[in-house]
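Hi support team,

I'm filing this because I wasn't sure whether my run with manganese (II) ion finished correctly. The job status page said complete, but I'd like someone to confirm that the output block is well-formed before I use it downstream. Pasting the exact inputs I used:
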Amino acid sequence: MNTHTEENYLKAIYNLSRVKGEANVNELSKQLDIKMPTVNSMMKKLAEKGFIIHESYKPVRLTSKGEKEAALIIRKHRLTEMFLVEKMGFGWDEVHNIAEQIEHVQSPDFFAKMDQLLGYPKIDPHGSPIPDKNGKMEWVEYHKLNECKAGDIVNFKAVTHSSDDFLKFLNSRELLLGTTIKILSIEAFDGTMTIEYNKRKHEILSQLVCERILVAPIKK
Amino acid sequence: MNTHTEENYLKAIYNLSRVKGEANVNELSKQLDIKMPTVNSMMKKLAEKGFIIHESYKPVRLTSKGEKEAALIIRKHRLTEMFLVEKMGFGWDEVHNIAEQIEHVQSPDFFAKMDQLLGYPKIDPHGSPIPDKNGKMEWVEYHKLNECKAGDIVNFKAVTHSSDDFLKFLNSRELLLGTTIKILSIEAFDGTMTIEYNKRKHEILSQLVCERILVAPIKK
DNA sequence: ATATTTTGTTAGAATGTTCTAACTTTATAC
DNA sequence: GTATAAAGTTAGAACATTCTAACAAAATAT
Ligand SMILES: [Mn+2]
Ligand SMILES: [Mn+2]
Ligand SMILES: [Mn+2]
Ligand SMILES: [Mn+2]
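And here is everything the job wrote out:
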């Protein structure tokens, strides 16, 4: 098996690759808070192990082996987060750091049991899909809230970042997954949005916040 | 904080110290399956960190700091085992290896939540006491079954070893914690015991098994 | 009491993960 | 298109954890 360390690199490559299909050393370095030369040498190791393709001075790409490996770690992470929220009573803002550690536990039985107790969930507490046992993940393509138009009515489906701070901010505004949001206006200058949901008639969100909120249009 | 590795050493020292108040390098080496020179150099490190006292060619002893540190890891281990059995439906023979990993998770909240959900348990699924938040452990002094006499009636309180194999053996004999056992006879030659419990009237246990079973006399 | 065995230590090396400093290649700006 | 900046690489070192080989001390056996 792979080490804790290798698993964290694979996961970071996977996440950065989601958009462009590739990840570069500089971004990995920032994301993992590890200096570039260290990342560089780990890229060599992961390439030797067949998890990634790495040509000099080019971004790295996951092989199908690497992609599966990463997805299975993400599966363990997200099942854990779901378990912590649904079965242990943690808030969605409290589970990421714990899951970051438990995702490295080597015990298929442990995660199979979580999965079973949770009723084989498809999404985690942040709205992200949970890969299946083969590492296949179904990505529903949501829109970012900041790309919507004034007058749109949408449903809050997922967040793109799960830092404590951001989730606590949403908690403080009572803005939870599943909430129906009406966009009242958008400030052209800085992208600030005024929205309405539940009993809150004039809530204001900065563009930074809107970029991290994923929504689906309401079908009528 | 300390590394995963240091924590495993501390735990091993604690367990070996239980009987004699000290642990020697050779036994640690066998227990951890790590060669003596490696253990020796780790002893220097742990001594520098103030967890143990180590004079050359003498057994090591935990300082009170080291003892507390070790007890708090054991607390996490045993709470985890209890959680796995009581809240997730694992058998007592399936939980040790998972707990061996989860005991290293750094999250006071996580273990506090387990503790709360379990109702602040005092013993783990193998009958061992769970240290409190200050690392204090109340050891009830049970007897080993092999030290009892023919005719004694005793209650099965704990096991001294929790390997899969041993626990599966007990499962196969339907011999669970809490069972009341009557000792029918003891073979003087090899210490084999014939015992009676529940519907089993003539069960035979080797001395090796009897040494690993802790019991309390029945009060009448 | 001496020889043998067991236990403990030292020295030197290997592997894994990380760093800083120096250099090279690629991208961006003017 | 050249200058500057950003991204990527190489080299060399540090620290943690482990090993084997050789040696030393303590315990045990005869
Ligand atoms: Mn997460
Ligand atoms: Mn992690
Ligand atoms: Mn255990
Ligand atoms: Mn452990």
